[in-house]
Amino acid sequence: PRLWTYVSDYANGLIHVFDPHGCWHTAYDGSGPSTAALVKPTRLALDRQGRIYVIQENQNYIVVLNSDGSPAGTIQQPQDLAGRFCPVSVAVDLNGNLCVSDCMTRKFYFYQPVSPGAWCGHRCCGSCAGFGSSLIFDRSGNALYADGGKRVCQLAPQATYPTTGTYY
């Protein structure tokens, strides 16, 4: 399911699943009729189809689980992953503003810090059609997007206005 969180439990060999409200839902051990349970999972990734990719300590392969936790196979070579993941671009400027591309929704999001550890999000505006691999900030703090080296677009966040001020 979208917006769910998956957490690897190194000590117990589990993948814990939390719903969008942060409530624990279930745990997967990766076992099946012909597959062993996970041992010391260290890293996780989700692909476009919601499959879970698990890296385990001291293993030279990746375990793939379906979104329901059932085994979906293993990955032995990096080329076997081609086309399964969305490219994600992230950039942070000197003021702590964050810009993230989301290839699933084909939108850009701009986050401004509002307090330590908290950001206010705005969907970015822009005329970039494709999704590439680069997001950066220029010296003036403008978010720039490169669509694979052929175009560079400037992204502007939706206007925000201060709620208080001083008139002199």
Main sheet summary: 7 strands, antiparallel
**Strand coverage percent:** 35-45%
Q: Uncertain runs with pLDDT below 50, 5 residues or more?
A: 125-133
The value of Rg in angstroms is: 20 Å
Account of the protein in words:
It is a single chain. The protein has 168 residues and is mainly beta. It contains no helices and 14 strands. It has strands spanning 5-9, 14-18, 24-28, 41-46, 52-56, 62-65, 71-75, 90-92, 98-102, 107-115, 118-125, 134-137, 143-146, 152-157. Strands 8-9-10-11-14-13-12 form a seven-stranded antiparallel sheet, with no helix packed on it. It has a four-stranded antiparallel sheet with strand order 4-5-6-7, with no helix packed on it. The protein is elongated. Residues 125-133 have low confidence and may be disordered.
In short:
This protein has strands at about 5-10, 15-20, 25-30, 40-45, 50-55, 60-65, 70-75, 90, 100, 105-115, 120-125, 135, 145, 150-155.
What is the secondary structure topology, with strand pairs?
Blueprint: E1 5-9, E2 14-18, E3 24-28, E4 41-46, E5 52-56, E6 62-65, E7 71-75, E8 90-92, E9 98-102, E10 107-115, E11 118-125, E12 134-137, E13 143-146, E14 152-157
Antiparallel strand pairs: 1-2, 2-3, 4-5, 5-6, 6-7, 8-9, 9-10, 10-11, 11-14, 12-13, 13-14
